[in-house]
Description:
alpha+beta, 2 domains, two-stranded parallel ribbon, 11 helices, elongated
Amino acid sequence: MKKTLFGVCALGALMSGGAMAAEFQPMGALGIGGAGVARTFDSHAPYWNPAGLAFNDKSFSSRIDASVGLKVNDGLADNVDRLSDLNFDTFSKYNAGATSAQTVTDTIEALTILGDIKEKKGTLAVDGNAVVGFQIKHFAFGAFGTIEGFAQPLPDTTNIVPNQDNTSTAITANQLWSPVAGTAATNPSHVYFSDTQVQQIQAALITNNQLTAVQAQDIINAADARLAGSGISADAATTSLVTLGQTLASPGTNTLDNNVSSVRTKSLAYIEFPLSYGHAIPLGSFGTLGIGATAKVISGRVYQSQTYLLKSGTKVESSDITRELTKNFKDTTQFGIDLGALWRPKEWINVGIVAKNLNTPEFDAPDVKDKDGNVLVGSGGKVKLKPQVRMGVSFDPLTWLTLAADVDLTNNETVLESNNYRSRNIGGGFEWHYFSWFKLRGGMYSNIAEKGIGPTATAGITFGTKWINLDIDGAYGLDTAKYKDKSYPQEARVQAQINFLF
């Protein structure tokens, strides 16, 4: 079973192209906006809130489900694909007398793309889960497999000057200008750069570079013609040209041959084998309090790789990044503890809270290699599942309608801790269940810890019989981003689940 669940989760990551506290996976709760802490009383309770087992309304339940999701933030996938369209071996080497204006504009575009990646700090993330759960009265157990993978950009905007011919010597400012000489007289820049930005670039190219104002304008116009309509901000292009001008004044060894721009991919796949129990405590007129605990064995696998974007003889596309998510790994087995509480003041109201991974399980991470194939010092280390706390409420204002909402009380760090990428979701929705064999769900959730990904709408349907039925749920981001040069919702997810209820 372990190999099968790892395989399903890893396959989900590939189809989409997961110190950290992993995001709450919306197992069995996707369609209702990912809200499950106060409305899960069956075989999914070990994941959502073991206290829910105190209120189970079935003697036995079993759920089998799988889901996969993709999150794309502006600035990474689309920029990597832009870089792949440029020939590094051409624009990184300037051949005397043979370098064309195209080479110059490719150089400027490549540096601007790196600047845009640095400015936007875009990410690419995949996640998924595969679950087999069982509930018998107030006990529950099973296997809960999860994978979360992230791609983090590490742009190098220091080593940015092309080399002369096949030497390690940087080009001069005059060699950058010569192939585009004469552009200023016939093609003044008024499309892409503002007047203020033109002045900033001119100042950087003229100072200490022995270029005239006309020569600087030639370079600016070459960049303007190349980048207008590219989707890259003029601010990023201005920054890259100013930096290039300043570096040309004293380039030293800051050449493109030494550029180490890369994308770090890091994933955590783990299978929890929990044993959970929930117990109800009568509170008289104050209702009933359920308390629960989960003890779990966790088999974890950390994947980690580094893909270099500017390297002779290679061309990296955004699809290559997702393929790297499940390469180069280490396995670790750990133990975890979760605690939960669920208060039911009235039969139609539930308020729950759960604290997961209280003992901070940690997993070994593999080493990664540098551009030359050498192991990066300190690249291994540990990945931790830090404690996380989530609260939820659910209401049944009518016998056929449930309203629910969840909110993370902790900012959950992710595998991209060095980029300070965090997850803190809030979400909720409704479930219409007039018939036991047919249900409709709808909702929305959003990561309030990050501004890069907008709100996500959710929906779901259940059909079958009272005892055996099928859930199909989906999520669709309301904002879009680019991946492999096409626009997609910033977040998308699908989930399917078979339920056995007796």
